[in-house]
Amino acid sequence: MSSHALPNILLNDFSNDTLLRLPPNFYKSLKSYISNKDIKKIQKAYSLAFYAHEGQERRDGSKYITHPIAVANILLDLKMDTDSICAALMHDVLEDCDVNKKDLIKLFGDDVAEIVDGVSKLSNLDINNRSERDANNLQKMMLAISKDVRVVLVKICDRLHNMRTIEHLPRSKQLEKSKETIQLYGPLALRIGMQDIRAELEDLAFRCIYPLRVSMLESAIKKSSGGRKRIVSKIRKELKRHLKTNGIATVGVKGREKNIYSIYRKIKSKHKPFSEILDVYGFRILVDSVDECYRSLGVIHNYFSPIENKFKDYIAIPKSNGYQALHTSLLALNAFPIEVQIQTRSMSEIASFGIAAHWQYKTQDKDVNTELRATKWLSGLVNLEKHTNNPSEFAKSIKTDLDSDEVFLFSPKGDIYALRKGSTPIDFAYEVHTDLGDTIVGCKVNRSEVPLNIELETGQTVDIITSKSNSEVDPSWLNYVATSKARTAIRSRLRKQKTSDARKAGKIMLESELKRAGSSLSEFRGSSLKKILDSIGVTSLNTLLTELGLGKRTGNIIAERFYSGLQIREGIKKPNPVLIIDNRIEGVSVRFAKCCFPIHGDSVVAHSDTEKGIVIHHKRCKQVKPFLDKDSRYISAIWGENKKAHLYKVNIDVNTEDKVGVLSDLGSVFARAGINIGSVITKTIDKKFAGFEIQIEVENKEELKNVMQKVRSMKSTTSCKRNINEK
Ligand code: MN
After folding, report:
1. In this structure, are 201 and 219 located in the same domain?
2. So what's the pLDDT on residue 607?
3. What is the CATH number of the domain that holds 666?
4. 375 occurs within a structural domain
5. Are 108 and 251 contained in the same domain?
6. Ligand 1 centre from 49 Cα, in Å?
7. Spacing, Cα 215 to ligand 1 middle (Å)
8. pLDDT tens, residue by residue, 675-692
9. CA-CA-CA-CA torsion sign (238, 244, 247, 249)
10. How many A from CA of 181 to the centre of ligand 1?
11. In this structure, are 612 and 657 located in the same domain?
């Protein structure tokens, strides 16, 4: 299908001249219950759809516009409201044409635009070959995306028309669509209580997938139907007569035809032969009031003998999808088992049309908006639930599905995961697998990279990027995970990480001490190592290293013990400094002190801190300078070449003349240099001058020098210097 440019005049000026005449039959159906003013709106929707799809064709060669009209017609049969009809007419215009949601809002209002947009979103879900668990989640997901039940209604009617015309698709597509219909759209229709549409959808799909089974079933039904018809008509007359003589006058009794897929499903699920399933005759009795339902039941139980344990009162306790009726099984004419359903007419209507029945346009209460009516219905269902012992799953599910506290997400393979609302990619990773959470380093949502703390939305595809070598859990993650699974996993991982970090830090410290004697840990093995450990009073080298790293023991004292084991104490040299690359020393991640903010190129020292692991300070930082020579927990460190363009935070103090726009001028200097500003603290110095403490992120000293030079060269700058917490 080619994208098609709309005549601009259509979007800007929808006047009577641009409106097209509605097809006569369609107009006639509209006329039956929709006001002239609303028909105008529908005419507008029709015109837009017509122009948008102009030149596009269906598979069978007919004009594309015939499809949206057919979908709108199905909704008309359900007596749906104007906005649904408009949305049905335009349900494919966002997909294939040059129209966007904003246009629709402008021309038709929020409701119509939301429905069209929702239907497009549902169409974009890739829903083939799902497992059953997924199919169930997918139904919930579709309802969650929809927000408005009318989205699902339009989508189901769209699918119904596509199934009615499925013979024009290639065979592989036919099978794909049919499977999807059985797995997803049938149950979805049932979920919102639309039994008739569900039956038709499933029959169409079943016919398409198993043509042979269908023809066998049909011929079997046909064979038995001659005698069957006579019996049905005889029993029907009997029932009617008995009811009438007992004063239930306005009554309809119908023989029920089962749809072919439901017969097939019964054969499969109950493992009963075809004859047994078909030999049960079904009848439906329709009366005017609930009272008459129960009286009818009494009457027929009086004349035919009921089969034990087969009576069900779905009027007092409705089924989960809102279905109400009395069900009973009896032996009619002493020979034939029959199933009887007794309902009021409105119960029967709801059973057929489900939510749509509640949405039906009623001219007398035009001012009650449709949204309200549906909400009322939903809350009605919830109230029903309170008065019954049988938890009304449907009421619960619809209610929570439309206003879901869950988000439904796809993995790249297409599996669906349900997570709490507010979940982030980290939650998602831990939900899929603990290993995935533990090694997460990044994330793509719908193929573009996003930060790990964004809130995920239903329908997104989440692709977790992992790295085995560079996987460290960040304590700050605890602030933005929503699931307890992720929280627990992060906590336990942090505990492990802390000891393993401490152990690594301890090793670096001890090695750097031993180097002074030209030795290294690898020289100590077996019994000689054990002797040293015994003399220190620890059971294993790992324990010793961990305690060292945590600052519970002092490096040079421990080193002394090792020297004595070596029995060589010639010329103890200065240790070689450790190498900092990005934010790591020998693979162990380090922190940069938040007092002096050292950056690449500074003269620095590494300090092993009990709580924080290894922390890098500027050598002139007042926190460390006095202790450098006295405390063995300071290890000399130098910078290696960075591998990953790590950014270091740094604080600079800028004083300027206090003029309008001076801060934004400063900002643009950093922006032009491609440097991020983390924070700015403004201080008024006096009437003439202002001071700014600015935190920026730089790769190295060189970059800092250059940008400070630029700041100094600004006219209004009086001073600019770096703050390394010296005095
Ligand atoms: Mn369509």
Report:
1. no
2. 84
3. 3.30.70.260
4. no
5. no
6. 12
7. 29
8. 988 888 887 778 788 889
9. positive
10. 14
11. no
Tokens of 16: 């009577």
Structural domain boundaries enclosing 227: 212-369
Tell me which of 343, 369, 395 is where a domain ends.
Answer: 369
Ligand 1 centroid to Cα of residue 158, in Å, is: 5
- The answer to the question of residue 164 being in a domain is yes
CA of residue 210 to ligand 1 center, whole Å: 25
Cα torsion 103, 104, 105, 111 to 10°: value is -170
CA dihedral 454→455→461→466, nearest 10 degrees, is: 40
Mean pLDDT computed over 584-608: 87
User: Does the pLDDT at position 409 exceed 70?
Assistant: yes
Neighbours of 571 (CB within 10 A): 8
- What is the predicted pLDDT for the residue at 316? 81
Asked if the structure places residue 485 within a domain, the reply is no
Predicted TM-score (pTM) of this structure: 0.56
- Cα 92 to averaged position of ligand 1 atoms, centre (Å): 6
Contact yes or no for 628/655 (Cβ under 8 A): no
Residue type for position 212: L
Look at residues 211, 244, 276 and tell me which one is the last residue of a structural domain. Answer: 211
d(CA 422, ligand 1 centre) in Å: 32
Q: What separation in Å is there between the alpha carbon of 56 and the centre of ligand 1? A: 13
Same domain, 715 and 589: no
Q: Note the pLDDT of residue 201.
A: 95
- How many angstroms separate the alpha carbon of residue 41 from the centre of ligand 1? 20
Whichever domain contains 164, its CATH number is: 1.10.3210.10
- In a shared domain, residues 325 and 222: yes
Residue 621, SS3 per DSSP: coil
Helix locations, 271-422, DSSP H:
274-278, 290-303, 345-353, 355-359, 370-386, 393-402
Number of domains in the chain: 5
Residues 455 and 361 in one domain: no
What's the CA-to-centroid distance between 156 and ligand 1, angstroms? Answer: 10
Query: What average pLDDT does range 464-470 have in this prediction?
Result: 83
Three-class SS state of 60: coil
Cβ–Cβ under 8 Å, residues 577 and 636: yes
Confidence of residue 403 (pLDDT cuts 50, 70, 90): low
Distance 193 CA to ligand 1 centre (A): 22
Q: Of 96, 94, 343, 352, give the one whose Cα is nearest residue 200.
A: 352
Same domain, 170 and 59: yes
Q: Is position 374 within any domain?
A: no
* pLDDT score at 573: 59
- Please, what sign has the CA dihedral across residues 50, 54, 56, 58? positive
Average pLDDT over residues 528-547: 85
pLDDT (0 to 100) of residue 577: 81
How much is the pLDDT for 471?
Answer: 67
Q: How far is the CA of 541 from the centre of ligand 1 (A)?
A: 69
Give the distance (Å) from ligand 1 centre to CA of residue 47: 17
Q: What is the average pLDDT score of the chain?
A: 80
Q: What is the pLDDT of residues 225-250, one digit of tens each?
A: 667 778 888 888 888 888 888 888 76
Q: Are residues 572 and 655 in the same domain?
A: no
How many A from CA of 489 to the centre of ligand 1?
A: 45
Ligand 1 centre from 180 Cα, in Å? Answer: 15
Beta bridge partners of 589: 584
| Element at 24 (helix H, strand E) | helix 24-31
Which residue stretches of 93-210 are H helix?
A: 93-96, 101-108, 110-124, 132-146, 149-164, 171-180, 186-191, 195-209
Is-contact 197 153, C-beta < 8 A? no
Which CATH number do you get for residue 403? 3.10.20.30
67 Cα: distance to centroid of ligand 1 (angstroms): 7
Query: Which position has the higher pLDDT, 689 or 79?
Result: 689
Q: How does residue 586 score in pLDDT terms, banded at 50, 70 and 90? A: confident
Question: 592 in helix, strand or coil?
Answer: strand
